[in-house]
Design a protein that fits this description.
Elements: E1 2-13, E2 21-29, E3 33-38, H1 44-50, E4 59-60, E5 64-67, E6 70-71, H2 77-83, E7 84-87, H3 100-110, H4 115-129, H5 144-156, E8 162-166, H6 174-191, E9 194-198, E10 211-216, E11 219-224, H7 226-236, H8 248-255, H9 266-276, E12 295-304, E13 314-322, E14 326-330, H10 337-345, E15 352-356, E16 370-375, H11 388-398, H12 403-416, H13 432-444, E17 448-454, H14 462-477, E18 481-485, H15 489-495, E19 498-503, E20 506-511, H16 513-519, H17 526-531, H18 541-551
Parallel strand pairs: 3-9, 3-10, 7-8, 8-9, 14-18, 14-19, 16-17, 17-18
Antiparallel strand pairs: 1-2, 1-4, 1-5, 5-6, 10-11, 12-13, 12-15, 19-20
Length: about 550
Amino acid sequence: MELIQIKDVSFTYNGEGIRALDRVSLSVKQGDFILFCGQSGCGKTTLLRLLKPELAPAGDCPGEIRYDGQDLRTLDQERAASEIGFVMQQPERQVVTDKVWHELAFGLENLGISTDEIRRRVGEMASFFGIQTWFRHNTAELSGGQKQLLNLAAVMVMNPRLLILDEPTSQLDPIGAADFIATLQKINRELGTTILLAEHRLEGLFPIVDKVVVMDQGRIAVDRAPAEAGEALRMLRSDHPMLAGLPSAVKIYHALDARGACPLTVRQGRTFLSEHYGNAIRRIPVHEKELTTPIALEVRDGWFRYEREGPDILRGLSMRVHRGETFSILGGNGTGKTTALTILAGLNRLYKGSVNIPKNGYDSKSVKHTRVALLPQNPQNAFVKFTVREELEEVCGLMEYGLDTSAELTDQVAKRLQIDHLMDRHPYDLSGGEQQKAALAKVLLLRPSILLLDEPTKGIDAYSKEVLRRILNELKTEGITIVMVSHDVEFAAMTSDRCAMFFDGQLVSVGTPNSFFSTNTFYTTAASRISRHRYDNAVSWEDVVRLCLENGELEPC
């Protein structure tokens, strides 16, 4: 039975001439689990928000959307609130109360449900999600992963028929993201809830969804089963940007022009390699360069807490980063990674230990520059104006570039980050990925000698990540030092000179990407997990393909 019918739906935001959606048609059956993916700004969020009447954006929307056979526009408000649940990208934006138990009960209270039924449903849902151990905690004390799980539980306590999620794992560490996705699979299989999910992190989703919908410039480009989506994209366009975002097992399969069933999971990928390719050559030669450039920043035995009687967030943190190096910090949510960046940026101060940031050879009399610039985790914290253009012009004014120079630099950075078509949009009207790029543009205009990035790939698609990687590599050649906090292990592996694991308020291990990711179990790339039983230091899917080609195919049995 069809739960959602979308027929020839287009959408144009108020005050804009370009369609965000262009004649979209889609059918969703009861119990479907559908993954929506595509480049930032392709229309995913717009489409999903149109399915939640309370969150539908303002604009012109010809076409028809039917929910359970009824025009969605005429759906009763109470039914829409209880039957259609929505989980947003940023966990803290959806939490509205001070206590976990109250957050779970809040929606039911607004529907006028009796106290006894609220207690029963809240207790059952808290047990289902494993929340009982922090049931009475303050919501402000929760980690990002706990807040997102609470958001999901607060929606599910309403017993929705349709669950919509907009990039819910973008701020979660790899373990937290895997747990969250496993919970979604459990909801879909055990409760029969229909799930529509927009995501850029596809590794754990392809094996469990029923269908993959790829959107491109407001239209549906691909609507296929997961195993067929990659080939459909290749047939559509051999260099389609979304090919870069496919799971590693799928990319390896297509790069080798393999035959037979396409592997989707790590286990299937391991079996595929074992059955089809040799491993006489187990390693790719790695020539690690010794870091000889001057020290750009150093922290010695750093201790920090937010309150005098509160717990220590940093516990003897020591780190040393060289000029022109990209240094990535990985670790779980709530371990103190962002706090460490605020210390480096001078926003917080250690109560014990020291931070040393030399001048790095810059002549401040001849070059207008900022020594340290921070890209915050939430890009909206960087916006204060009404258009992207005004945001960039504000930075140029602060840097005293002059009118001609300001216009030239603004145009250059906008084209470099591919946001030139967004210059007259309000920053808050952009998608999450577009906001991230606009905030980065502001930071780059500061011309920092040290660039601090807090989750820079959050909310952006795989193609945009490649663009960002090229930009960061260019900045390195200019002598700029980059310190990056990230949950994106694939991006860190491809971009970093060194990676570090943050745990218990300090760095517990530091190494080059090959040594770091080849030995980790969870904080590693999917390509490494797929290939480590056959090859020793393959970190990227390109590494795996190279070793497969060097070893050649096995003779069929």
